[in-house]
Write a structure and sequence with these properties.
194 residues; mainly alpha; two-stranded antiparallel sheet; 2% strand; elongated; arginine binding; transmembrane; membrane; transmembrane helix; L6_membrane
């Protein structure tokens, strides 16, 4: 496969993944789809890993990869597609960093668990220092009284962020290698190719 066609496919895969991360982070800001709990959000939600890392820092490489795989003002000139491939190299490096950030914050959020109100009306991270894995034992989730269903909400959305950012990491890494090859070797497409 040509480096240009590969870049276009990778870019078209990265864009929806970044939008999924953006949406998941927005939903994390409103636990149980209610805005009254924003004063007690978990610290990992405020790190905006899905918005910044998996979202914006991956959306830019996705767009750059689509542009690198297309034709434009420098598509068949003196440098062919190499200028856009070089931009895609730098964008993909930022995409790798952003997806790593999102993956690490999401993993830490899943390990520690959400902040919630427990029986004595204190707000705490009840799963932070327990020996049992709360992810596989949903009966422990009842310790969180407010916000309602916050554990399921956080686990589901941070799991989505983890999966999406892991896939973004792989795709950005592939595009980093692909764009580097495209810079040095050019694009194998001919002028008439789409």
């Amino acid at each position: 496969m040509c480096t240009g066609k590969c870049a276009r496919c990778l870019g078209l895969s990265l864009i929806p993944l970044s939008l999924i991360c953006l949406l998941a982070n927005i939903l994390l800001l409103v636990p149980n789809a209610e805005t009254k709990w924003t004063d007690h959000l978990s610290k990992h939600v405020w790190f905006m890993a899905g918005f910044i890392g998996g979202g914006l820092l991956v959306l830019c490489p996705g767009i750059a990869a689509v542009r690198a795989g297309g034709k434009g003002c420098c598509g068949a000139g003196c440098c062919g597609n190499r200028c856009r491939m070089l931009r895609s190299v730098f964008s993909s490096a930022f995409g790798v960093l952003g997806s790593l950030y999102c993956l690490s914050v999401s993993g830490a959020a899943l390990k520690i668990g959400p902040q919630c109100q427990i029986e004595d009306n204190t707000w705490t991270y009840p799963f932070e220092n327990i020996d049992v894995n709360y992810l596989s034992n949903s009966t422990l989730w009842d310790v969180c009284q407010n916000p309602p269903n916050v554990v399921a909400w956080n686990v589901g959305l941070f799991a989505i962020l983890s999966a999406a950012s892991a896939l973004e990491l792989v795709l950005c890494g592939i595009q980093l290698v692909n764009a580097t090859i495209g810079v040095f070797c050019g694009d194998c497409r001919k002028r008439g190719d789409p």
